[in-house]
Amino acid sequence: MDLKNKVILTGVKPTGTLHIGNYFGAIKPAIELGHQVHAVGGTHVMFVADYHAVNFMKDAAMLAQMTREIAAAYLALGLNPEQSLFYRQSDVPELFEFTVLLNNFTPKGFMNKAHGYKAAVDKNIAKGEPQDAGINMGLYTYPILMAADILAYDTDMVPVGKDQVQHVEIAADIAGAINACYGKQVLKIPQYLTQQHTEVLPGTDGRKMSKSYGNVIPLFGTDAELKKAVMGIKTDCQDINVPKNPDEILLFEIVRGVLPTEQVNEIEEGLRQGGMGYGTIKKMLLAGLIEQLTPLRDRYDYYMTHYEEVEAFLDVGATKARSLVRPVLNRFKDTVLGRI
Ligand code: TRP
């Protein structure tokens, strides 16, 4: 993939407590991509999409806490704010001017088809409620705000999970409609980039790792919490000496997503030949997790207790972000309002 001089942008919504599935599946590859982009002279943009959380989060103290946690987490996990543009969406008001303009070029039908809105409607219908019950315009127009996030930087590529592909396509369609309308390239058409590692780390019960299932291995948990989660990974009761197919074993799936290749190979061999017990594997997994996660947890604790340092990075990022968005907004605005 040619990242040279490209603008690569990703937004992260503030969420609850992070788990290792978030880290190994999404955050780690995103941060590594940032390093690669920087190395070839591209622009890497990584921001906290706090306005995108307002449609479902009306507890302001909780929203502030979630925003702080996600910002501290990204820094702790290796995002370099000197290499990546790192800011809070709410600190870049130009984005909202952008959003208002985009509204005028977005067919309402696009929003009816957006999966977040559709899922909310389906839920209402299933409950026998009016289809739009409890649905606010923040949820309905979510993809337009996201299009502003993307289009405002002349973004080339947006790395996203599968669930966000539709949103990037909507942004591309809106930009295409605007360019067609004015007969020139007003806005750059973005592309989505789905992560190579599409395997999702399963939770301790074999379902997708998710807080709502209570099957997570926490990312910044204490050693005791990690131990409890790892020891709770579901196993079967086959005899220790029976040769097993590693691909059918949940514990191995988690091992493969977390431990270094050498150890993964050793465990794979042990399972295939028989003789390596689940208890031993869990101990290796726990030791590997503690070794990898302890420095991350320490850095996270540091940033949470020295939050002013995080705030300072975010402020610098917002100033820089505004200076990048301003000319793109002016180009868009001048075109639409006939000022040029
Ligand atoms: N909607 C994304 C999510 O739920 C977050 C997001 C907001 C985003 N704006 C973005 C992602 C722009 C990529 C680009 O994860």
Short characterization:
The protein has 340 residues and is mainly alpha-helical. The protein has helices at 20-39, 60-76, 94-103, 108-113, 115-126, 137-140, 142-151, 165-182, 223-231, 250-258, 261-273, 278-305, 307-337; strands at residues 7-12, 43-48, 84-88, 157-160, 191-194.
Walk me through what this model shows.
This protein has 340 residues and is mostly helical. It has two domains: 224 residues, Rossmann fold (3-Layer(aba) Sandwich); 91 residues, Orthogonal Bundle (Tyrosyl-Transfer RNA Synthetase), CATH 1.10.240.10. The protein has 13 helices and five strands. The strands form two sheets. A three-stranded parallel beta sheet has the order 1-2-3. The chain has a two-stranded parallel sheet with strand order 4-5. Helix 3 packs across helix 7 and helix 9 packs antiparallel against helix 12. The chain is globular and about 75 Å long. The model has no long low-confidence stretch (mean pLDDT 95). The structure holds tryptophan (TRP). Tryptophan (TRP) binds next to strand 1, helix 7 and strand 4.
